[in-house]
Amino acid sequence: MTQSRIQNHRRRTCLAVAILSSCVLASCSTRQVSRTLEGSTAQRLVTYSLDQFIGELAEQPEISVMKGKTVHLGVYFVKDHPLMDYATRLITARLNLVHGIKVAAPADTSEFELDVFFNSMGTDSDDFGLSVPTFGLVPTSDSINILALDMYHGITEGYAIVKSTDDGVIQQTERVLARIRRDNVSTPIIDFPLNQLE
Fold first, then answer.
1. What is the pTM of this model?
2. Is residue 95 predicted with pLDDT exceeding 70?
């Protein structure tokens, strides 16, 4: 072989390896934020995480000191959320069940003001693994999973601020993060769950 043929062969081989590597690496991981209540699994993920969040929030020392007292309750998120009424009712019920805390009507007097602030309340998904793009050859999919981990999460995060109406003392709870997971392993032949919602 001549020197120029050897160099052309090397260039073509390097180009083929570079194209193949970039195709494989380009589809290794994606993150997708889902609409909050799209389907039963998403609803269960977000409501289970909300329930876990409220349970952990109720155990914070700033909340437990209000045992047997009355509070005015405010629940806030950055925008209108379809679960705000549900969250408010669940917080009201959990406070009463766990600590005997009564939520007062707005016109009534209370011993404390309790404001719960949500940073996050929703679902997201993440795919991580090895997949190969279909280059439009398969009309129903952009890629084929060789081996991938599909992660579906319900996430609720937030904190509470407690104000005493007697002396005006304000306290903030720790930030609470509740995450409920449902993960699947995907291959070209079969998908199987790593964990299930109970």
1. 0.73
2. yes
